[in-house]
Amino acid sequence: MELTGARGGAAPFSPIDSLHLFVSLLGEVEHATPDAPGAFYNRLAEAVCRLGSLKRAVVFVYDDVARRVRVVGSHAIDIELFDGHNLAIESAPITGRALDLDQVLEGSADDLAAPYDTLLGIEHLVCVPLAAGGRGFGVICAEGSARRLSEEEREALRSLGKVCALALSARVATRQQSDARHLSDRIDLAREIHERVVQRVFGVVMALQSGALLDEADQVRAAAELGAALDDLRDAMGRPLAATTRVVASTLRDELVRLAANAPDHAVDVDWQDGLTIPAAFEAVTQSVLGEAIRNARRHADPAHIEVAVRGDADTVELEITNDGVGAAQRGGAGMGLRIAAFEALQHGASLTFGPTGAEHWHVRLVLPRPEPA
Predict the structure, then answer these.
(1) Does the pTM of the predicted model rise above 0.90?
(2) CATH superfamily placement of domain 252-369
(3) Contact, 125 vs 111, CB < 8 A?
(4) Cis amide bond preceding 115, omega within 30
(5) pLDDT range class, residue 150, cuts 50, 70, 90
(6) Element (H or E) spanning 294, and its range?
(7) Of the candidates 162, 260, 316, 360, which lies 20 to 30 Å from 286 by C-alpha distance?
């Protein structure tokens, strides 16, 4: 891709120029094949360098659920350099100041603590805040020239950061709309199962619990009701939900490594069975269950310890998450997130169970059947 509007050494870019470039950028990203999850952010980093006559750049965003800083894109810097590093905002206070002040700040390597100082290798640092509408998404750290930016250049980069933030807001809104459709599909499925399956089974259960002996005709009717309920269940579960299929960029093992490294308030122990591999078809559902279990533990409990076990055998793969800080909300039952995850598990022929174990522990257990060999 060739970004239009590269600086030619004449007049500096104005906010309108920034807007024109990002309209073009977003249009190309919208119609491009997503060959890499970070393609969108890589284009943002490239655009910052083009507009600001900067050498290279890295895009950092803050994940408020996982409570960690993530590197999501770069230009002229190998993003793999950051793999395995525990990144925190406290390690680079200049980035926090840029967000708090909503200003483009300049500094040097002395303003960076480990591991940023060695990973970036930047002598003249330019921090562009990604903030708009009172919400800060992250920063773009770039390498500039030895001379300081002019006020005009600084304002152009600040405007650029706001356009970036607006673009990120649009992506968040799109994802939320997709999640809303996802939730609607799941609720429709739950309603259909309740109306077509549960009601039939409930009638048969009531007849069996009455204690009366069923004559031959009633037995035939009961068998017919159960058979019809099973057919309805197969029909409901066989309905494709392709529109809600999720693509994941990482693996369950990667997510567990990050989780253990970025758990500030409690210890996270991971017990991964030796030699076990997660089939690619299970990555999305296992990561979904893990994320929901961790979110529930952080929002509704006060755990001092979280244990994650990944094990399996020739027939199944199992993921179990246990925390030792059951809150009142969890003792009262699970929220919608875990119930939706249970439906997602059903689509894979799996089972998801959850609930309190003892007075203080809560567990989530996903058991998936291994896919048949092709």
Answers:
(1) no
(2) Histidine kinase-like ATPase, C-terminal domain (3.30.565.10)
(3) yes
(4) yes
(5) confident
(6) helix 283-300
(7) 360
